[in-house]
Amino acid sequence: MNWSPTIKGFKAYLQLEKSLAKNSVEAYIADVEKLFQYLDMSEIHLAPEKVTQKHVESFLKWVSEIGLNARSQSRIISGIKAFYNYLLLEEIITVSPVELIETPKIGRKLPEVLTIEEIDKLIAVIDLSTPEGLRNKAILETLYSCGLRVSELIGLQISHLLLDEGFVRVVGKGDKERITPIGEAAIKHIIIYIKHVRNHLPKIDKASEDILFLNRRGKQLTRVMIFTIIKKLTQQAGINKTVSPHTFRHSFATHLVDGGADLRAVQEMLGHESITTTEIYTHLDSNYLRQSILDFHPRGKS
Predict the structure, then answer these.
(1) What CATH number matches the domain at 4-89, 1.10.150.130, 1.10.12.10, 3.40.30.10, 1.10.3380.30?
(2) Active site residue: 81, 135, 137, 149, which one?
(3) Mean pLDDT of 221-248
């Protein structure tokens, strides 16, 4: 009844064959470990290949009872399905106990979006008299200009800046690289940050020598630090929305789509594998849609 070797093999499969990012691998492993912990807690001592659909259903009922929402339940089911698909691939099992399990229906939640005016207002409250302020302005301009994930932002490398050409090379999910355009405002403030702040840091950590955005100790910024910076600026700007680094990514995509940008181009810039992921940004205003019918449909006018 030893799950460890099987989970270890599953982890290697996700890393080597599926080329998933570290965070994704850890999420899948955590989902499988939840199932194991539940079985152990329930004194159901079975090897992974002996688990049945009934056991999985009992586990999911428990997950629901402890208060996890439909979105979290859906993610857990996805992780367990991936685990048993791996066991099928390795011919450890012939039938998956999760094959007939349905994921809970979840509504597609529209992301929080800032208006252009709110983004201007948020950036305007940054104190540019401090080194951190100059850095933070470059960070926010880069987030909004390129639509980066927070992990892509903190990992952005100086050697990947193609500022003369107006592009940056971004390492996204699964270590997949993409080239994305960067706007003039972001380029300007990155150059100011490098020239007046980064180049004057007393010491830069060896592991962070090629990392663009650093803390005052010369080390790579963390995800938490970016969240903290944005939360503080949001409060100072008096914006009553839940704003995170991802809000800038959502706003970047929404403003492009609303402005008429091609959805495929936005997909490429965001690094989405599927166009359906990008389509969430087509949540146009209902009045705009009605006016489009009135203006362009042959039967729209009386």
Answers:
(1) 1.10.150.130
(2) 149
(3) 92
